[in-house]
Amino acid sequence: MDTNNQSVNAGTGEENFAEMFEKSFKQQGRLEPGQMVEAMIVKITAEWIFLDLGGKGEGYLDRKELADEAGNLTVKEGDTVRAYFQSSANNEMHFTTRIGSGPGKQTQLEDAWRNRIPVEGTVAKEVKGGFEIKIGGTVRAFCPFSQMGVRREEQQADYVGRSFSFNIIEYGEDGRNIVLSRKSILEDERQDKVSALRESLKEGMKITGTVTSIQKFGAFVDIGGLEGLLPVSEIAWSRTEKVSDVLSAGQTVEVIIKKLDWEQNRFSFSLKDALPDPWDAAVDSYPVGSYHTGTVSRLAPFGAFVTMKEGLDGLIHISKLGAGRRLSHPREVLKEGQAVEVQIESVDRAQRKISLALAEIRRAEEEEAATLKEYKQQAVAAPQNLGSLGELLKAKMEQNKNK
Prior knowledge:
Elements: H1 2-28, E1 36-44, E2 48-52, E3 58-62, E4 80-89, E5 92-96, H2 105-115, E6 119-127, E7 130-135, E8 139-144, E9 163-172, E10 177-181, H3 183-200, E11 206-215, E12 218-222, E13 227-231, E14 252-261, E15 266-270, H4 282-285, E16 291-300, E17 303-309, E18 312-317, E19 339-348, E20 353-358, H5 359-381, H6 389-402
Parallel strand pairs: 3-5, 18-20
Antiparallel strand pairs: 1-2, 1-4, 2-3, 4-5, 6-7, 6-9, 7-8, 9-10, 11-12, 11-14, 12-13, 14-15, 16-17, 16-19, 17-18, 19-20
Helix pairs in contact: 5-6
C-alpha cells in the first residue's frame, strides 16, 4: 500500500514537475519576430556574437552588425545590447540590431518609433521635397530636406547611395507612411560632444578645426561637434578682402578660441592669433631712417597705405607726397598695387603704426638740405666778391640740375 502510494506520488511528482516547467515556459512567453530584448554578450567568435537571454536561453547575431566601417568591434563580452528577434531554428534564436529587416520588420519599426530607437537607412533617390530612404532594403520611408542635416557646403545629390542613422518622427498606415529625421540624430550627437567639450575648452586655447562654410563676413569652423564663427577680421594679420581667397570649405585650420558663450550658443575663433604677430619684430626689422620697398595697398583721402610685409602696413601722409605742391588726393601720384621705395620715419609698436615717406622725395630733400648746409659754410669763408649766399646756392642748384 505504502509502496503503491510512493509510486503514485513519485509519478505525480514527475508529472507535476513537467507541468511546472511547461507553465514556467508559458509564463516566460515565446518571442515574436520583431520583439526587442536587452541581453548581455556572453561570447564573441569570428562570425557570431552570442547573447544571454536569461530564462529564454541563448541567442546569436551577426558579428558584422556591431563592427565599424573598418571591421573593428564596437562592443565586448559583458556589454549589454538591444536586439530584435528574427527567427528560431534548431533551438537557436537569431537576432538583429538592424531594425526593419527580416520577419516582424513592421513591429520593429513601430517599436523604434514609439521608443525613439534609431534605424539605419540608405538614401535611394532624391524626390520632391526630400529623399526616399530604404530601411532594411525594402521598407520605403521619406526624409524631408530640412530633416537631412545637410551642411552648407554639401550638395543634396551627394547623399544618394549613402547610409545613415535616422529617427522615425512619423509612423502611420501600418508602416506605409514613415517619415524620418537625420537632423535629430546629428543634434543629439552634437549635444553629447558639446557637453564633453564644455568641460575641456577654455578661451585662449589653440585647437584644430575644419572650415565648414565660407561667408562674406567670415567662415564657420567646426572643432569636433561645436561650430563657431571665424570673423573676416580674425583671418589674417593683413587685410582680407575676400574670404574665399584665403580659406576653403573642408580646410583644416588651427585657431585660437576667442569667445565661448554657452548660454547664447555663440562661439568665435581667431586664425591670425595662432600665427606669429608681424609687429613683434617691427622695431628691429624697420629701424627709423632705413629704406625699404613696399606695395601700395590702399589709397585714402589722407594718404597712402603701403604694405611692408603681410600684416604690416605703414602710412605715407598726403602732405609728404606732393614734393612741395598741394595734392587733393594721393591718386594724383600713386596707384594701388604700385611698388614704391619708402623711408621709415617712425614705428609705434603699441599703436601698431608706421609712418613713412617716399624715398625719392626724402632723398631730394636730404640732398637739398646738404647743399644748403655746404654753401652756408662756404659763404662764411668766401670773399665778398664771390657773390651772396643766394647766388652761390642758385648756381650750385643749376649745376646739379644740368648734370
